[in-house]
Design goal:
By secondary structure, the chain is α/β, with parallel strands linked by helices. It folds into 2 domains: 2-218 and 336-403, Rossmann fold; 246-250 and 256-327, formyl-coa transferase, domain 3 (2-Layer Sandwich), CATH 3.30.1540. It has helices at 5-9, 30-40, 69-74, 88-98, 112-115, 120-126, 151-157, 160-163, 178-201, 211-216, 222-229, 264-274, 277-280, 288-293, 295-306, 311-320, 331-336, 338-342, 384-390, 395-403; strands spanning 2-3, 21-24, 44-49, 63-64, 67-68, 78-82, 103-106, 131-136, 206-210, 246-250, 256-260, 325-327, 346-350, 356-360. The strands form 4 sheets. Strands 6-3-2-7-8-9 form a 6-stranded parallel beta sheet, sandwiched between helices. It has a 3-stranded mixed beta sheet with strand order 1-13-14. Helix 2 (30-40) crosses helix 9. It is elongated, with a radius of gyration of 25 Å.
């Protein structure tokens, strides 16, 4: 989708969540990503951030005209209300916003909202239909609830970081804030479930998402394998332990081909393509258990074949044989990929300075009520006046709050 700046600024709300009012508190990644996802599908997201400084994400990584380009992704389809939540007058404004809100999202340390008089009991007394998503490092209960928790710590506590390494080498991070993002998506699932249930009961509820639990929920058979066999899964680099063959194989041009030949019939096609029908027809390798027992031999054979061909040649041969395979993409590969383009995953938006910026498209893709990029990320406090008028404040009251630095 290509849209002008003015088109995005005034596009009407569409999508399955049009009419849903969301108040977003918190900053950086976890809470705001959840709100962004709701906003992409039509929700009216009012983002509350501190006057003067705003959300720290505005200054993270690479900046364009003084603002992070990441901000343009994380805060699209939102309105910005600059409000000092530590001031009682600002807390009163949040209470007014909550009166007709459907969802409130916060990712402060447990107890912060209660300290401001904005805990679940206080807010749901104002609006019993309110759904409150609370994202924190360790959850709202338990012995670690008060510890500061960032995504990287959650990834380590969940067991993920232990597995992201080459054997015997230092564990590494995934490369993106996967703990925060997984927690956000679990939060969105919780909100949608709570909205569905509210249709029956008429009541809201609290959704308690811990960063480490969201990652742990995606750890597959890690725990039951330990419970049943005492097996502690270890780092395996690019291989997929217990499933063979599946690995990254170095090619003639120095690149790597990711090859997943772990289906029984797929393995035979892979071996035939490589000129190794002896392995493809070996009865001992006819199923996954047999292949796992001889995975080193199989990997060596595949590596010997890929070493004779470029990545492109390997992938072309495997595409012809219907063997799942792919190259390791850089962002430059993504930006040039025709499949990304055809699926609408590379969207160009017009910035206020007249320049164009490519941002990720919207997922998931709904056939009848798809999401949309209706509005660029707001400048700090861009919508303060409009939002405060909506809750009934007069121009004089707004001006007085600004004079005191409570509103930006």
């Amino acid at each position: 989708m290509t849209a002008s700046h003015s088109d995005i600024e005034f596009a009407p709300a569409t999508g399955p969540l049009a009419g849903l009012k969301v108040v977003e508190l918190g900053q950086l990644i976890a809470g705001p990503f959840a709100a962004k996802t709701l906003g992409d599908f039509g929700a009216d997201v009012i983002k509350i951030e501190p006057p003067l400084t705003g959300d720290p994400l505005r200054q993270w990584r690479l900046l364009k005209d003084g603002t992070s380009v990441w901000w343009q992704v994380q805060s699209r389809n939102k309105r910005s209300l600059a409000l000092d939540l530590k001031d009682p007058a600002a807390q009163d404004i949040v209470r007014q916003l909550v009166q007709d809100a459907d969802v409130l999202i916060e990712n402060f340390r447990p107890g912060a909202m209660e300290g401001w008089g904005l805990g679940p009991e206080a807010l749901q007394a104002i609006n019993p239909r309110l759904i409150m998503l609370r994202i924190s490092g360790y959850g709202q209960t338990g012995p670690d609830r008060d510890k500061p928790g960032f995504g990287v710590v959650a990834e380590a506590m969940s067991g993920l970081r232990h597995l992201t390494a080459e054997p015997g080498r230092v564990p590494v991070r995934v490369g993106v804030s996967i703990g925060d993002t997984l927690a956000s998506l679990h939060g969105v699932m919780g909100i949608l479930m709570a909205l569905h249930e509210r249709q029956r009961s008429g009541l809201g509820q609290v959704i308690d998402v811990a960063l480490y639990e969201a990652v742990f929920n995606c750890m597959e058979s890690l725990l039951p394998e330990y419970s049943a066999f005492g097996a502690v899964r270890e780092a395996a680099g690019s291989a997929l332990p217990g499933i063979a063959p599946s690995n990254a194989y170095r090619c003639l041009d120095g690149g790597y081909a990711l090859i997943a030949g772990n289906g029984d019939s797929i393995f035979k096609r892979l071996m035939n393509t490589m000129g190794r029908p002896d392995l493809g027809t070996d009865p001992a390798l006819a199923d996954n258990a047999g292949r796992v027992a001889r995975v080193a031999e199989i990997d060596a054979a595949i590596g010997a074949w890929t070493a004779q061909h470029s990545v492109s040649e390997v992938l072309a041969a495997l595409d012809q044989a219907a063997v799942p395979a792919g190259r390791i993409y850089t962002v430059a590969d993504i930006a040039a990929d025709p499949h990304y383009q055809a699926r609408g995953m590379l969207q160009s938006v017009r910035m206020s300075d007249g320049s164009d910026l490519t941002v990720p498209g919207i997922v998931p893709k709904l056939s009848r009520t798809p999401g949309s990029h209706r509005r660029n990320a707001p400048t700090l406090g861009q919508d303060s006046d409009a939002v405060l008028r909506e809750v009934g404040l007069s121009e004089a009251q707004i001006l007085a709050l600004k004079d005191k630095g409570i509103v930006g």
